[in-house]
Amino acid sequence: CVLKASQKRRPLSRLLEQLLRNLEKRDPHQFFAWPVNDNFAPGYSTIIKRPMDFSTMKQKIDDNEYKSLNCFISDFKLMCNNAMKYNKPGTVYHKAARRLLHAGLKQLTPQKLRPLGDILT
Ligand SMILES: CC(=O)c1cc(-c2ccccn2)c2ncccn12
């Protein structure tokens, strides 16, 4: 039988796309959906040396740039930590980043991922 396009994807890519969709649900305001724009965030690109956002992570999945789950998790943490570095505590973005990081890492624990089997080894 002919596989659908999605089924042709590498197993890791399909897993990462699933994990990304679940992480994006924790960003209801879509603060993290796109690269932060210096027009909204003055000086952002001088303060944050390695910007990251969900659209960039999606592109990296599609380009097979993630060689492991840990590389994917590192970009997720980078994205959240950038927001907690640039935005002062108490701001809507700092609070959203803390919540997203906390909720996201709970989804990425070994206990939650073990059922996915040896795809991660
Ligand atoms: C994630 C982040 O730091 C962020 C997202 C945004 C944002 C996200 C969507 C639309 C407009 N702004 C933002 N604006 C000002 C300062 C920081 N930010």
3D architecture notes:
With 121 residues, the protein is mainly alpha-helical. Helix 2 packs antiparallel against helix 4 and helix 5 packs antiparallel against helix 6. The longest helix is centred in the middle third of the chain and has 18 residues. The radius of gyration is 15 Å and the shape is globular. The mean pLDDT is 92.
The N- to C-terminal Cα distance equals 28 Å
Percent strand equals under 5%
Fraction of residues in helices? Answer: 55-70%
Number of strands: 0
Largest sheet: none
Radius of gyration, rounded? 15 Å
Uncertain spans:
none
Small-molecule binders here are: 1-(8-pyridin-2-ylpyrrolo[1,2-a]pyrimidin-6-yl)ethanone
In DSSP terms (H or I, runs of 4 or more residues), the helix count works out at 7
String of helices and strands: HHHHHHH
Shape: globular
Structural class: mainly alpha
Mean pLDDT: 92
Summarize the structure.
The protein has helices at 5-8, 11-24, 44-47, 54-62, 69-86, 92-107, 110-113.
Secondary structure layout:
Blueprint: H1 5-8, H2 11-24, H3 44-47, H4 54-62, H5 69-86, H6 92-107, H7 110-113
The structure holds 1-(8-pyridin-2-ylpyrrolo[1,2-a]pyrimidin-6-yl)ethanone.
Features:
single chain, 121 residues, mainly alpha, 7 helices, binds 1-(8-pyridin-2-ylpyrrolo[1,2-a]pyrimidin-6-yl)ethanone
